[in-house]
Amino acid sequence: DVKVTQSSRYLVKRTGEKVFLECVQDMDHENMFWYRQDPGLGLRLIYFSYDVKMKEKGDIPEGYSVSREKKERFSLILESASTNQTSMYLCASSSTGAANEKLFFGSGTQLSVL
Amino acid sequence: QKEVEQDPGPLSVPEGAIVSLNCTYSNSAFQYFMWYRQYSRKGPELLMYTYSSGNKEDGRFTAQVDKSSKYISLFIRDSQPSDSATYLCAMSPVYNQGGKLIFGQGTELSVKP
After folding, report:
1. Which of A76, B1, B65, B89 could bridge B23 with an S-S bond, Cβ 3.0-4.6 Å?
2. What pLDDT, in 10s, does the model give residues A11-64?
């Protein structure tokens, strides 16, 4: 069964901390994505990667960076966490990169920045 | 104005009711239309996919796209308590790289026994 695993379900961090959110997929997918989900705003794309060591900005990349050193792992980094980054973070993967392709999502990490 | 608008609800219906969920959009380049279902404390899962205009049926679920009105709908017949979830519409132009979907805000649905 297809699986995208996010390392933490809940995280509480302080303003200014460096935060790492980890995501691992076991489907040998080429493509991985980070979205954030906020009430009233839906899901918004932060960063994505179509290959190891490659990354591209999504719609809201400010304040974030990513790392993809291995095909199965995609990390989201908050360089200096701020309260407006309190959100649900969802990792997703897909195999071919076609515009109509199905995304497989993890269960999400609820991050609170105090 | 958001590219995709979806009423967040919440929407509460009795078991057995027909549910209609809707999204409007402004970008005429959108060709791929999807509905994702998200249960509480879970990630979204693809429920239905439609290309361009028309209808698609899968069991109790029907997806409709009206490109002339820039309006898409998801109908759920004989709704069940297990259908209680948040439903997200998502769209993409043909030329977008995969995974770069534009999502609506999501509609929270509750089906009461």
Report:
1. B89
2. 999 999 999 999 999 999 999 999 999 988 899 999 999 989 889 999 999 999
pLDDT digits (tens, 9 = 90+) for A54-68: 899 999 999 999 999
**Beta strand residue intervals within A1-114, DSSP E:** 4-6, 10-13, 19-25, 31-38, 42-49, 56-57, 64-70, 73-78, 87-94, 104-105, 109-113
Which 3-state string (H, E, C) describes B21-76?
EEEEECCCCEEEEEEEEECCCCCCEEEEEEECCEEEEECCEEEEEECCCCEEEEEE
| Contact state of B99 with A4 under an 8 Å Cβ cutoff | no
Asked if the Cβ–Cβ distance from B101 to A45 is below 8 Å, we say yes
Encode pLDDT of A65-81 as tens digits: 999 999 999 999 999 99
User: CA of A40: which chain B residue's CA is closest?
Assistant: B105
Is B92–A100 a contact, with Cβ atoms under 8 angstroms apart?
Answer: yes
CA-nearest residue to B47 within chain A is A102
Q: Do A103 and B105 touch (CB under 8 A)?
A: no
